[in-house]
């Protein structure tokens, strides 16, 4: 078996793209999108009809973006056996009630497209407000994917809130340490992004949390391979193709020992905010991640409004 085939035996493989052709060819179980990927999808010929119909409509631009996100997600959902993740407008990252309302609207649009809620994950930024929104949505039967996770505290707060799935980032953590420290990574196991996901995975298993851990934001296949065995990994088509072309052995790196102990006390809001503030990597990358998604959301709005 090639490495992609081996990875499938121990981890649920997820495609991190809005490229329908690549998803059809690579056959992941799930797929994830975000404003940046939707902006790229809008330039693909396979979604030209959707873009044309939306730009010519008289709907409010926010409605156009929501409909485009769902139209892309619905078409992807038709060629995968699992779930599609669709992200809430990043400008709502600090507004719990608005996030809940937007999530319910997206689920309604999916229902109109014939896609049931159990085939969709609503992505929300793992701010304190976003996690509270996800907690309420989970209670209402809408499963969530908490994204932009850079800290252990973010992950733990999501697990305490009963969030279905989290996306702890790898590559963006690595980017920060490469740019701001003298760290030289000679082995993927020494990569701080890889170590962050491994710590979260081991903690969740040791304390019996049901929250799914899905490593995200990979820069190379070495990072992916170092997390083989994680619950899920969302990977770009380029890296999926590299894994598919590699016939070498892929050992399982993460394993659930089966040992369990009681979970620690849940984090308070003040402890959560302080921990994330005190780590410059977390503070900078979370803020930067939200800004980048907002920028691409606004670019997509401008495109569909034109």
Note the beta-strand portion: 5-15%
Query: What is the name of the CATH topology?
Result: TIM Barrel
Number of structural domains = 1
Sheet with the most strands? Answer: 8 strands, parallel, barrel
Find the count of extended strands (DSSP E, 2+ residues).
8
- The number of helices is 14
Helix/strand/pairing category? alpha/beta
**What is the helical fraction, as a range of percent?**
40-55%
pLDDT averaged residue by residue: 97
CATH C-level category: Alpha Beta
User: Any low-confidence stretches, pLDDT <50, length ≥5?
Assistant: none
Strand order of the largest sheet: 1-2-3-4-5-6-7-8
Q: If you compute it from the alpha carbons, what radius of gyration comes out, rounded to the nearest whole angstrom?
A: 19 Å
Tertiary shape? globular
In CATH, what is the homologous superfamily? Answer: Aldolase class I
The end-to-end span amounts to 48 Å
SSE succession: HEHEHHHEHEHEHEHHEHEHHH
Q: Give me the CATH architecture, please.
A: Alpha-Beta Barrel
Describe the protein.
The structure is a single chain. This protein is α/β, with parallel strands linked by helices and 306 residues long. The chain is built from 14 helices and 8 strands.
């Amino acid at each position: 078996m090639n490495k992609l085939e081996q990875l499938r035996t121990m981890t649920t493989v997820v495609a991190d793209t809005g490229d329908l052709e690549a998803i059809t060819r690579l056959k992941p179980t799930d797929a994830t999108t975000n404003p940046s990927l939707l902006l790229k999808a809008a330039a693909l010929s396979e979604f030209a009809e959707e873009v044309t119909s939306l730009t010519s409509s008289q709907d409010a631009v926010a409605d156009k973006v929501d409909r485009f996100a769902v139209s892309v997600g619905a078409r992807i959902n038709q060629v995968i056996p699992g779930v599609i993740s669709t992200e809430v407008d990043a400008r709502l990252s600090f507004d719990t009630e608005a996030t809940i309302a937007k999530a319910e609207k997206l689920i309604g649009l999916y229902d109109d497209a014939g896609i049931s809620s159990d085939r969709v994950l609503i992505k929300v930024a793992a701010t304190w407000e976003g996690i509270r929104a996800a907690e309420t949505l989970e209670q209402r039967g809408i499963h969530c994917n908490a994204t932009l996770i850079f800290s252990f505290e973010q992950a733990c707060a999501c697990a305490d809130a009963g969030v279905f799935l989290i996306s702890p980032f790898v590559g963006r953590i690595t980017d920060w340490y490469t740019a701001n420290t003298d760290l030289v990574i000679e082995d993927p196991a020494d990569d701080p992004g890889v170590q962050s996901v491994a710590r979260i995975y081991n903690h969740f298993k040791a304390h019996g949390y049901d929250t799914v851990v899905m490593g995200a934001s990979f820069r190379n296949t070495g990072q992916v391979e170092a997390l083989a065995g994680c619950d899920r990994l969302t990977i770009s088509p380029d890296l999926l193709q590299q894994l598919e072309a590699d016939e070498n052995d892929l050992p399982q790196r993460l394993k659930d020992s089966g040992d369990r102990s009681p979970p620690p006390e849940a984090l308070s809001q003040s402890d959560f905010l302080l921990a994330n503030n005190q780590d410059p990597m977390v503070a900078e990358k979370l803020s930067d991640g939200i800004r980048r998604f907002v920028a691409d959301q606004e670019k997509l709005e401008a495109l569909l409004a034109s």
